[in-house]
Design a protein that fits this description.
Keywords: Cell membrane, Membrane, Transmembrane, Transmembrane helix, Transport. Helix content is 80%, strand content 0%. It is mainly alpha-helical.
């Protein structure tokens, strides 16, 4: 005996479509909320509801940015900052990941070196900038070292934590299968730690832009951080906002690039 399916009422159809409709509204709002903010800022500045000396209209900031793009001035500063971040990031990430893997796999080494890293990690990286400038000078070497220190600890702790959180059953399977230490590392420990490693790389990328901006404030003659500081000294507020937006976009694009690599090399992780 068969029964025909009951047709849904209009009210039931409306309730079923409601989640998809809300999702479209949220997506639309996410696209246009930044534009709405810029519009409110523009009108408030033009109508003198906010002080234009401190908050120039976005149109004036865009005009300043365009003139700097045409003159290629902006690209010189971007190139200097990217060069410093690239070198410093590599100097910190490579040993951070390496030592994180070693300490995560070896309890004796972790007991020996862990307290040293735990004592050094809370030291504010900007607080040691005068010492680094004293040792390495005001050139790029001091920027490399400062960024490397900040990147090292974030990648180190995330990597070590990822290895230590590897499910014990994986290690037991490797041991019962007669896998060597190298095989256990390659087949089990390292893949299990990859999501945490990429988390550390993304955190370190954001931190490196904070560090380089502060370092370029005081000890540089080029770079986006220096450009922001020089604009502040001359009260060129529009140029200062251009620098702030540029370094924000640079950091955002860097994190997007790391996330793309994560999707490529860690397809099993949640994104």
């Amino acid at each position: 005996m068969t029964t025909s399916a009951r047709a849904l009422t209009e009210d039931e159809l409306r309730r079923l479509k409601a989640p998809a409709r809300r999702e479209k509204i949220y997506r639309f709002a996410s696209y246009f909320s930044p534009l709405l903010l810029l519009l409110v800022w523009e009108l408030s500045s033009r109508l003198n509801l906010i002080d234009q000396r401190f908050f120039p209209p976005p149109s004036a900031i865009a005009e300043t940015a365009w003139s700097m793009i045409v003159s290629l001035e902006l690209f010189d500063h971007i190139g200097a900052t990217l060069r410093r971040i690239g070198v410093g990031y590599a100097m910190g990430a490579i040993p951070g990941i390496t030592l994180g893997l070693i300490l995560g796999l070896s309890q004796p080494v972790r007991r020996l070196l862990g307290p040293i890293f735990a004592a050094l990690y809370p030291v504010p990286k900007i607080a040691i900038l005068p010492l680094i400038l004293l040792i390495f000078g005001v050139g790029d070497a001091s920027k490399f070292v400062l960024i490397a220190i900040g990147v090292f600890f974030l990648t180190f702790y995330n990597t070590m934590g990822g290895v230590m959180q590897t499910p014990q059953i994986y290690m037991d399977v490797a041991k019962n299968a007669g896998a060597s230490r190298l095989q256990t590392f390659r087949r089990f420990a390292f893949p299990a730690a990859l999501p945490s490693i990429f988390t550390g790389l993304k955190l370190a990328a954001g931190s490196s832009y904070i560090i380089i901006a502060a370092a370029e404030f005081l000890g540089a003659r080029s770079g986006v951080g220096f450009f922001i500081w020089a604009s502040w000294q001359t009260f060129a507020v529009s140029r200062m906002f251009v620098g702030i937006v540029v370094i924000s976009v640079m950091g955002y694009l860097t994190i997007l690039a790391i996330e793309a690599l994560e999707r490529r090399f860690v397809p099993w992780a949640k994104h």
